[in-house]
Design goal:
Layout: E1 5-10, H1 19-30, E2 33-42, H2 55-80, E3 86-95, H3 99-108, E4 112-116, H4 125-137, E5 142-145, E6 157-161, H5 166-174, H6 176-179, E7 184-190, H7 204-211, E8 217-222, H8 229-240, E9 244-248, H9 254-260, H10 263-270, E10 275-278
Parallel strand pairs: 1-2, 1-4, 2-3, 4-5, 6-7, 6-9, 7-8, 9-10
Antiparallel strand pairs: 5-10
Helix pairs in contact: 3-4, 8-10
Length: about 280
């Protein structure tokens, strides 16, 4: 099991220093093909009217998006030249509401989508939307890279956030290329249910599955001493020096997580190591 098509979507020039670099390193390590989409996004919401709006304003917004896309393309081209790998570079400008089919079509035929962390300073609304489009419409696993993180293509220590959900199992299966190359994988369970089906051996079946794939596994059952499960996973990853976190994405609805928060959103906001997610 390997990754042969890797996609990254860039929406500003600074992402070439972290997101694109990581995608390049991973593509080299897997001898894969890298698809790069340089995207300029017009945040204008179609169907909404505001005082003074007219066709000229909308045209100006689209022109700004086109300029952004061209600038990102130039920065990506400069980084890709001489990188000694197979790649394709595409430029596009779109409105936020029209971004889904453009990105989803490319994500569907990719083994992995590498994106920058969608929350933080200067992060536009399109960055969160990209993650959700890749996961839901694209049905692809996503690797989120925090800014300024120079992580190895294949981490040596990986934490799996395991809760026996469908989403977490899908994430583990899609992350096997990373798990098989790690020195140690920690199946981490926070406060397992006392009356669950696997209460006597939490994480046992998953460990057996991974060991049969040649993965070195250790089960860590930890108490919830922090307010949120996501905080506990982050603390555990920090304590053991993990370089990646693998978890299922959006166990609750996206609307609920957007309004009330949830493990996916909280983890992405706080994580300072790459996060591998699938739904």
């Amino acid at each position: 099991m390997s990754m042969k098509t890797i996609l990254t979507v860039l929406t500003n020039e600074t992402q070439t220093d972290t997101c694109l670099d990581h995608a390049i390193n991973l593509t080299r390590a897997e001898d894969a093909h890298l698809d790069v989409l340089a995207l300029g996004v017009d945040p204008t919401q179609v169907g909404y009217y505001y005082s003074g709006a007219n066709a000229l304003i909308h045209q100006f917004s689209l022109e700004q998006a086109t300029e952004t896309a061209n600038a990102v393309t130039a920065a990506a081209q400069k980084r890709l030249e001489g990188a000694d790998l197979r790649f394709g570079l595409e430029t596009a400008a779109t409105q936020l509401a029209s971004m889904s089919p453009l990105v989803a079509e490319r994500a569907r035929f990719s083994d992995l989508v590498v994106l920058e962390k969608p929350y933080g300073k200067d992060c536009g609304a399109e960055m969160e939307a990209l993650v959700e489009i890749a996961l839901f419409e694209g049905q692809a696993p996503v690797l989120i890279i925090p800014p300024s993180v120079k992580a190895p293509a294949f981490p040596k220590k990986i934490v799996i956030g395991w809760n026996e959900s469908r989403e977490s199992l899908v994430a583990v299966r899609r992350a096997l290329p990373f798990l098989k190359q790690a020195d140690q994988v920690y199946v981490t369970i926070v406060d397992p249910p006392r009356h669950g089906a696997n209460r006597s051996d939490p994480g046992g079946l998953l460990s057996q599955y991974l060991v049969r794939h040649g993965v070195s596994v250790e089960v860590c059952v930890i108490a919830k001493t922090l307010p949120r499960v996501s905080d506990q996973l982050q603390r555990h990853a920090q304590d053991i020096g993990a370089e990646m976190l693998v978890m299922g994405a959006y166990g609750h609805s996206r609307f609920r997580e957007a309004i009330l928060g949830g493990a996916t959103r909280n983890t992405l906001e706080a994580s300072d190591i790459p996060v591998f997610m699938a739904h």
